[in-house]
Amino acid sequence: MTEEGIEEMRNRVKQYAKEKGFVLNVDEKQLSAVLRGLARN
Hints:
single chain
C-alpha cells in the first residue's frame, strides 16, 4: 500500500473512531505502525 493509501486509511479510521466513540493511540508513530501492519495483511 502506498503512503497515500495509508493516509486515506488513517483518515477513515479516525473518522470511524470519532463516530463510534473510540480512542485511537495518540502516538502517531505507533498508529502508523499498526496501519502499515494491517495494510500488509
